[in-house]
Write a structure and sequence with these properties.
The complex is a heterodimer. By secondary structure, chain A is an alpha/beta fold. Chain A is about 50% helix and about 15% strand. In chain A, strands 7-6-5-8-9-10 form a six-stranded parallel sheet, sandwiched between helices. A three-stranded parallel sheet of chain B has the order 1-2-3, covered by helices on one side. Chain B is elongated and about 45 Å long. The termini of chain B are far apart. Classes of the chains: A alpha/beta, B alpha/beta. At the A-B interface, α1, β1, α2 and α16 of A face β1, α1, β2 and β3 of B.
């Protein structure tokens, strides 16, 4: 018994030493990595002398922070705008407690020092920052609405998408085209997005089909999905479609999945692109039960455009999905009362005016 | 009011891929035409030509020392010249 405890204590000690060393190496690596960016960015800022700096995401803030700290005079009259695409310290995959604290401290300190205005994607994330700074006037909501404007010059390679649509591409059999119920998932194919749960769910309904439109984030997840046991004739994976073509491309589908799993706070408050794209395409939406989804789908109103469920709870999920499938026409009909909003709507331009004030 | 203001947009990934960045640039263009963009790329990311509708002053930064970037350019030019060579199969 004594020997067993001795071995246990020794392994615990070794584990602690190993995790400590790996933590220090990780921080040291990051430090060197960012130092290299810093030098070049500083020279660009010195050359340009910008009046407004618009920072996208935390990595850019982290590098800029060092330059700001050492060159306060350089930024004397500069306005800062920080676009937080997500809550960085609670991003997926979940981070170590200490790393989370460090990120949070850096982010808050920089925003306070520079009096930055904050832009974010959802009500939840905006409220998170409002609570952090106890100031509601410096936080602005800009949703990830789909765009009709093309930002690229050459569109020749995507021409087939302009004439085609997801249902035509999915079904060769015309008979199936009218009868089948086709669901779509749009977005990055990666961990904790609820893709595995969605595949499992669709696989158990023989008359339901699923088109996954997006790219795999890495090879490991690709292998994980291909290893899953599912009907490959009913569940197909397509490549990424550009934003300005996407809404028309998915319009012919019957409904959309937004199964983001609330594994981190950032995902819990998320307002994913796929949600707004599916809304713009007037598709009934079956989503994970999250605060932003409840608002966007008007679940608690008399005119919902979709339903929510818990993708972790397999038994309830099936029941909810069946009810959702039976009410597809009702959700579709409710879109008549919905204002269809796209990027660059007058309200968005107005918000930008306020941000730059 | 903002016409002559210089705006610097800093993004932590290739801006062609990120529609939120593209949309913010589009909106900022309503206020000022003088926009520069810095994209902080990963060491394995390739620098692509500006294929967007925006006429931007783009700076791409990779985590290299300047000497390493020069070396990289030097070798990529050599490879290009080698490929142009008629005897290259």
């Amino acid at each position: 018994m004594k020997i067993f405890f001795k071995i246990l204590i020794k392994t615990a000690k070794l584990f602690l030493i190993y995790s400590g060393i790996s933590f220090i190496i990780k921080i040291f690596n990051e430090f060197i990595y960012f130092k290299l960016y810093e030098k070049e960015l500083k020279s660009i800022i010195l050359k340009n002398k910008p009046d407004i700096i618009y920072i996208h995401e935390f990595k850019a803030l982290l590098i800029l922070r060092k330059i700001y700290k050492n060159n306060l005079l350089l930024f004397k009259d500069t306005k800062f705008i920080y676009d937080a695409h997500e809550i960085e310290c609670f991003r997926n995959p979940p981070k170590n407690f200490f790393i989370r604290l460090i990120i949070e401290h850096i982010e808050i300190k920089f925003i306070k020092d520079t009096k930055s205005k904050i832009v974010s994607v959802s009500h939840g994330i905006c409220n998170y920052y409002r609570n952090k700074f106890k100031n509601s006037k410096k936080v602005f909501l800009i949703k990830n609405l789909p765009s009709k404007i093309s930002f690229r010059n050459n569109l020749d390679d995507e021409n087939y998408l302009r004439v085609s649509n997801i249902k035509k591409l999915f079904f060769n059999d015309i008979q199936k085209y009218d009868q089948a119920k086709l669901g779509i998932y749009v977005g990055n194919i990666t961990l904790n997005r609820g893709i595995e749960e969605t595949i499992e769910l669709v696989n158990s309904y023989p008359n339901v089909y699923l088109a996954i439109i997006g790219n795999f984030s890495n090879k490991n997840f690709h292998n994980r999905i291909t290893k899953l046991n599912y009907d490959k004739s009913r569940i197909k994976i397509f490549g990424e479609v550009h934003n300005e073509l996407l809404v028309n491309f998915i319009k012919t589908a019957d409904f959309a999945f937004v199964p983001t799993l609330p594994v981190t706070l950032s995902y819990y408050y998320s307002s994913p692109n796929k949600l707004h794209e599916s809304k713009a395409a007037n598709l009934p939406i079956f989503a994970q039960n999250l605060p932003e989804h409840l608002i966007e789908l008007k679940v608690n109103s008399s005119q919902p455009i979709g339903a929510v469920s818990d993708f972790f709870n397999h038994i309830n999920l099936k029941n909810d999905f069946e009810i959702f499938l039976n009410n597809l026409d009702k959700y579709k009909h409710n879109y008549k009362f919905e204002k269809n909003s796209y990027f660059n709507s007058p309200d968005q331009v107005e918000i930008y005016q306020k941000i730059l004030e | 009011m903002y016409k002559d203001k210089k705006i610097l947009v800093i993004t932590s990934r290739s801006f062609y891929k990120d529609y939120r960045v593209l949309k913010s640039i589009y909106n900022l263009f309503n206020f000022s035409q003088n926009i520069s963009l810095v994209q902080l790329l990963k060491s394995n990311e390739t620098i692509k030509k500006n294929n967007t509708i925006f006429n931007l002053n783009i700076h791409s930064i990779k985590p290299y020392y300047k000497s390493s970037i020069n070396k990289e350019k030097k070798y990529s030019n050599k490879i290009k010249n080698f490929k142009k060579n008629e005897n290259f199969f």
